[in-house]
Amino acid sequence: MSNEKPSSAPFTELVDLASRRLGAGVVATNEDTFADAENLLVAGPAEFRPHTFGHKGQIMDGWESRRRRGVSAQQPHPTDEDHDWVIVRLGAAGVIRGVIMDTAHFTGNHPESGSVQGASVPGHPSPEEVEAAEWVDLVPRTPLQGDTAHEFEVGNEQRFTHVRLNIWPDGGVARLRVYGEVRPDPRDLDGLTFDLAAQEYGGVAEAASDRYFSSPHNLNAPGRATVMGEGWETRRRRDKANDWVQIALAGGGEALAAEVDTTHFVANAPGWADLVGYDASRGGDPHTDPDGWFEILPRTRLQPDTRHRFRLVPGRTPTHVRLNVYPDGGVARLRLTGRLTEAGRAALALRWFDSLPAAEAEAALTGAGLTAAEATALTAARPLADAAGATAAVAALRPADGPDGEQSSRRRSASWRLLGV
């Protein structure tokens, strides 16, 4: 059974944007003498091995800073504002729904309090550029306890690329989890065929019949599984039903090929599997509409420890897929190669645009050809909840029959292309 501590927070069903597996990394820290800040991002739970000493003391599986001191013999204690910090580049930019600051195994050396901030810095910024960014409070300074996974919901709808963990005055934090919804830049996906189910593009395993041995989030994680524990495995069924995982795709798309990978599952691979799809863009709900599902891949025999590749017959375009395995067992990875439909691209683009900081949204629009005034007006019209609302907002920028009508029409067309409407 998984040794991850159970959580009552609903946001933990989302993707951990700060996972090293997803590509997260430590950009900078002011202090990690005792234990490396990169330990914060390790995928598994923290481990403690007593009486394992290095030349700096007990080896801890987490981030631990040195003990702070005052400025003089007359002032030996740190001030109330003295603190340590670490900046993390998220593996994928997204809207953050919840944070866990886990002080597991730090009991006499945990921080007194902590906070988390977020920033959005596009491109590939240097550490200095990230440090100088505008930081937004996601979790205000709050007291921390030792050996405790502190869960905090976040209510900010902005898209972030980096987070900063602050601790007062010093101490150790074992793990930092940042759960949220991936919001990729649609311009990075234009014209590409890619894995529609992948976490890094916004795919998320939103429901599963069983997660006894391991998480269904492993199914669409980056890279190949290196051991059985990095896949999704169910308990042994003692009835006549079957297990399944439902994945919301990055966007509605045309599915061209599928890969069902049972690597490392030798004596516990499923016997058969099939794939079904659902198109939520037509207004239905895949959670409550059992009749709206359609076949993508018929029930097919699986082999143990094998990467199964299937070419799919072009047809209906899903926004969600469900992998059914019969009767139970483990699957390392599911890949669904395809390309976004126009509607899928538009929905993705509007979610992205609505969550950008104002300055980034305006820069994207001016880069697409709008004037600064038009970009400001369209940004102020957010949220653009649907394509109709976006079209109306774009059309209202400037009448097309004025002296600048032709140029205005071209600029509106540029913004239509950016937002996919």
From TrEMBL:
Task: Tell me its EC number(s), please.
Answer: 3.5.3.4
- Record key words, sorted: Hydrolase, Purine metabolism
The answer on whether this UniProt entry bears the keyword Nucleotide-binding reads no
List the catalytic activities from the record. Answer: allantoate + H2O = (S)-ureidoglycolate + urea
> Domain Allantoicase spans what residues?
23-182, 202-339
> Per the record, a Pfam family?
Allantoicase
Which pathway, per its entry? Nitrogen metabolism; (S)-allantoin degradation; (S)-ureidoglycolate from allantoate (aminidohydrolase route): step 1/1
* InterPro entries referenced in this protein's UniProt entry, alphabetically: Allantoicase, Allantoicase_dom, Galactose-bd-like_sf
Q: Which NCBIfam families match?
A: allantoicase
Give the family, as the similarity comment puts it: Belongs to the allantoicase family.
Protein name per its UniProtKB record: Probable allantoicase
Origin species: Kitasatospora cystarginea
Q: What is the lineage of its organism?
A: Bacteria, Bacillati, Actinomycetota, Actinomycetes, Kitasatosporales
